[in-house]
Amino acid sequence: MIFKKRTNAVTWQEILEGCLRREAKAQRQLFERYANFAKNTCLRYAQNEVEAEEMVSDGFLKVFDKIEKYDPAQPFEGWLKRLMVNTAIDYFRRNTHKISWVDVEDASQVPWVDSNYKDEYLMTITADEIMVFVQRLPMSYRTVFSLSVVEGYNHNEIAEMLGISESASRSNLSKAKAKLQSWISAYVVQQDEITHKHE
User: Fold this and answer.
1) 187-196 long-range contacts, Cβ below 8 Å, gap at least 24?
2) pLDDT tens column, 150-161
3) Helical packing angle, 76-94 and 155-162, nearest 10°
4) Domain 12-94 - what CATH class?
5) In 3D, which of 181, 175, 59, 97 has the Cα closest to residue 189?
6) Domain segments of the chain: what residues?
7) What is the pLDDT of residues 117-149, one digit of tens each?
8) Taking the model in full, what pTM does it have?
9) Is the dihedral of CA 54, 55, 61, 64 positive or negative?
10) So what's the architecture of 99-197 in CATH?
């Protein structure tokens, strides 16, 4: 008779059941499995890695607290992502007193497209480089940009989530796009100049 060697690999079902029982070991295993995924989501809303890690920590506390509400028939990543985005919004709300909102009157003076910007510039830089520019945006611009462009929410939904007007959402997205286009244009031109100098 051949005996199968017992494997130490923990299944997703075992982790989930352990989390439902509030077992610290299972919670740690879930965190280790999804920490990078959660951090990548939070980085779109954070100014730096420290902020992102704070959002991730807060987010996983919500995960462990609300795990009974997760429907196992649905992909866990989608449920986790929604919780992390909500955590980023909560972080935003806690710091909203520091934010200077741009409203619709100022938006008319903001160009949607930088005159030096070309769409093909995006093909010449990496996702990590783009993320650096997104993180440089002020919190209000960064949050609205991520909710609109990355998550696909409309201005009415963003206004409701952040407790702002639709016009503020539109104008802050406009400002964010203008700043990103300006920075990317300058960066690509600079990289081209460096490349040509070394040819």
Assistant:
1) 187/125, 187/129, 187/133, 188/121, 188/124, 188/125, 189/116, 191/124
2) 899 999 999 999
3) 60
4) mainly alpha
5) 181
6) 12-94, 99-197
7) 566 676 777 878 888 889 999 988 999 999 998
8) 0.72
9) negative
10) Orthogonal Bundle (1.10)
